[in-house]
Amino acid sequence: MSATIHSILKQYWGYDAFRPLQEDIIQSVLQGRDTLALLPTGGGKSICFQVPAMMQEGICIVVSPLIALMKDQVENLRKRGIEAIAIYSGMGYREIDIALDNCIFGKIKFLYIAPERFYSELVRERIKYMKVNLFAIDEAHCISQWGYDFRPSYLQLAALREAHPEVPILALTASATRRVVEDIQERLNFKAKNVFSKSFARPNLGYMALEEENKMNRMLRIVKKVGGSGVIYVRNRRETQEIARFLLNHGVPADYYHAGLGIKEREGKQQAWTNNQVRVIVATNAFGMGIDKPDVRFVIHLDIPDSLEAYYQEAGRAGRDGKKAFPVLLYNQEDRERLWKTYQDSFPSVTFIQQTYHHLANHYQIAYGAGKGMSVDFDLVEFARKYQLEVMQTMSALKFLERDGWISVSEAVFIPSRFKFEVDFHELYKFQVQAAKYDPLIKAILRTYGGVFDFYVPINEYEFAKKLGVSYETIVQLLEGLEKQQIGSYLRSTDKPQLQFLQPRVDYKNLYIDTEFIRERKQVKGEQIQAIYRFLDTKACRSKAILYYFGEENSTYCGECDLCLRRKHLATIEAKIEQEIRVLLMEKSLELHELIDNLTVGSDEQKLKVLRTLTDEGKVAIQDGKQYHWMAN
């Protein structure tokens, strides 16, 4: 068995050996055991389900909330000659129908699927007919209401166990507390508890949490002193541009990144940073998930993250090559107060949640009793502005509406335009003869894409416009014409989040909202805020504080964080003070003010502290109540 998994690893991924814990996790899965794997960011989670899936007949279903990451993994698998597809919000019913059929009757080896798709009866029903060899649940902490990133759509995953009770589940996450670890296994109906956990310790990271009023200048000094590539996380889109401009003005090659940019612009910025054409990327937390750049030397937070889990994951994007790197959190009292206000705003009243639902239904002109299954592009900022709603409260209201089964909301992701012919080749030829204006476009599609009679293929309207020497608008009109005449099916591109109505519209006054759940979530979130405050306020060791939070209670001091370095520096100064006291008092006895004045290192407070310690230890004695002399041999 061991040789087989190693040969698959070498054949498809080119690696000679597994990383720590990967082989143990794979063997557990191959034995048919439900398994929870806790591997830190960059620990190689995907190999843990991809290798065992390749060893067995059938398909592996991978659940992930990160659509961009799903698309990247599908593309990477295809490059390795492995059949994989993804299903997520924004895809059409017919498109999903065909993709699911290919999973049942075709040679698809991996189906990546967003959790909100499990609200669909079509998806749940078709999975029953697939020959599934493994369920892989990525970002598994999202299923726990005790976790920092609870997502209501994950609660639908119990349907997987019902459809295939004998198929093992592999749940994967980079960070989870003990309570979340227990909750994940319970919610996924593990047959027996089975956890593989790598230590959360990152010995090469020197965590820093520095209280600083002038954060911009401190940030600049850190960037210039540490050198190399880095990420700076900020609170909002406006700050990404301001801080990138500040760095550029001070000679640091920098750029900004946020979810509001177009897909091509985001990809260009990310690529420039990955290739070290840009040293520093200034971003909101939309940046970094799934990016495996090994040589990041620093990650700076200019605002306090709202949980230690989030901070650990974002800070963990530094130093994946094992070399020294520095996660630095810069904060002040105003940041602490703002974080607490954000927390309070995250739990709107039931009346606000009901009114948000009412505005949503009106916004999309849904009649009472209608709208079930309707999926639409959704722009949160535009919606909040139109109805004069506070954005943070509105975001929270949407999450609670999703938790109670009224809507589902997916992340923003670029989905290219897609096209498929709905008639066979002979019917298409007859149409070309009868409708000559469509002929050049049809020929161009047939020359460019294979399988367009069987599958939806991604198309680029601008490329066809260039090839045929016509405008973009003309190509769109022709594609829409083919759909209108039922010759083809044309799905336009989108890069907006998708919102789906899961139930027929009801009067908002009759809308059921689980107030007990909201109360529990508020308590959990409050505890997470207090934990990040404790991390900031600890006087011991930053790494030790993080490890304690994740249940590693017997860790040692890291020796690398700001607190450990300060202690080392202090110990060095105190050792020098002791040495000077020894030399001075061995030469002659001195009164207190004479001794203090003659010491050349340390503050008066440090000098007195060392002198008191030496007196308590009997190394220094006081004669006549005022003369100090050296007693030790």
What does this protein look like?
46% of the residues lie in helices and 15% in strands. It has 633 residues and is of the alpha/beta class. The protein is built from 25 helices and 22 strands. It folds into five domains: 2-197, P-loop containing nucleotide triphosphate hydrolases (Rossmann fold); 208-331 and 525-549, P-loop containing nucleotide triphosphate hydrolases (Rossmann fold); 341-413 and 496-513, Winged helix-like DNA-binding domain superfamily/Winged helix DNA-binding domain (Arc Repressor Mutant, subunit A, Orthogonal Bundle), CATH 1.10.10.10; 417-491; 562-630, Arc Repressor Mutant, subunit A (Orthogonal Bundle). Helix 1 packs across helix 3, helix 5 (93-105) runs parallel beside helix 6 and helix 19 (461-468) packs across helix 20 (472-484). Residues 26-194 form the Helicase ATP-binding domain. It comes from Sphingobacterium thermophilum.
Which short descriptors sum up this protein?
633 residues; alpha/beta; Rossmann fold; Arc Repressor Mutant, subunit A; 7-stranded parallel beta sheet; 6-stranded parallel beta sheet; 22 strands
